[in-house]
């Protein structure tokens, strides 16, 4: 008996292709115009789909924005992990991840979609939960690794992870709005290194 998983039907493949096309178009237009000024018609035209396709996959404009923002949040986490992965030393890996996160916050789509629009469109409390879902586990794992290797000593990694995520989020917002973001990135990285250095044994 064959154990190969069932292959997706042509209809399913087309549906996923449509969904990806809409997300790609929406990301570009939300980043360029902002949520409030991004007409759904422009997304429909860019993705070459019908308005009905957007409602079918995402419910409405807000649902589409949420899907775009969640995709970006997941992508942000992946890029941070990829930037830090080559570092073998746990402390240097964390510092590299911090810098990568801060630098990535300068990307126009990150600034507009994640740091400007998402808290207002989705709601601050709900967006905070989404951020935690993607980033909290990674931060706890990082702190556990640093504790296990003796780099830092932390009694409650989950509590510290939550506090650090709050600091990162505020820093990213500040950098996104700064007139001199490169200097603010450097200052923020130094400050976070000093804060975490207090946990070294």
Question: Could you please say which CATH topology applies here?
Answer: Tetracycline Repressor, domain 2
**Biggest sheet, in brief?**
none
Cα distance spanning the termini: 58 Å
Shape designation: elongated
Describe this structure in words.
There is one protein chain. The chain has helices at residues 10-33, 40-47, 51-58, 61-84, 90-104, 108-121, 124-148, 157-177, 181-197. The protein is mostly helical and 201 residues long. The protein has a single domain (11-197), classed as Tetracycline Repressor, domain 2 (Orthogonal Bundle), CATH 1.10.357.10. Helix 1 (10-33) packs across helix 2 (40-47), helix 1 (10-33) packs across helix 4 and helix 3 crosses helix 4 (61-84). The longest helix is centred in the C-terminal third of the chain and has 25 residues, at 124-148. The chain is elongated, with a radius of gyration of 20 Å.
List the helices and strands and how they pair.
Layout: H1 10-33, H2 40-47, H3 51-58, H4 61-84, H5 90-104, H6 108-121, H7 124-148, H8 157-177, H9 181-197
Helix pairs in contact: 1-2, 1-4, 1-6, 3-4, 4-5, 4-6, 4-7, 5-9, 6-7, 6-8, 7-8, 8-9
């Amino acid at each position: 008996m064959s154990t190969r998983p069932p292959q997706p039907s042509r209809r399913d493949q087309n549906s996923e292709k449509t969904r990806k096309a809409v997300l790609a178009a929406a990301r570009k237009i939300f980043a360029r115009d902002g949520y409030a000024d991004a007409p759904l018609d422009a997304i429909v035209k860019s993705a070459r789909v019908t308005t009905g396709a957007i409602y079918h996959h995402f419910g409405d404009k807000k649902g589409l924005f949420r899907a775009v923002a969640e995709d970006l949040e997941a992508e942000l986490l992946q890029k941070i992990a990829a930037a830090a992965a080559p570092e073998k030393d746990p402390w240097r890996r964390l510092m590299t991840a911090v810098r990568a996160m801060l630098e990535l916050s300068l990307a126009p789509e990150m600034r507009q979609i994640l740091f400007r629009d998402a808290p207002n469109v989705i709601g601050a409390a709900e967006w905070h939960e989404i951020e935690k879902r993607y980033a909290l586990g990674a931060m706890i794992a990082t702190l556990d690794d640093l504790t296990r290797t003796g780099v830092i000593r932390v009694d409650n990694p989950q509590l510290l992870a939550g506090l650090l995520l709050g600091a990162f989020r505020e820093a990213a917002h500040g950098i996104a709005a700064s007139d001199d973001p490169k200097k603010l990135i450097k200052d923020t990285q130094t400050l976070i290194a000093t804060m975490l250095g207090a946990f070294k044994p």
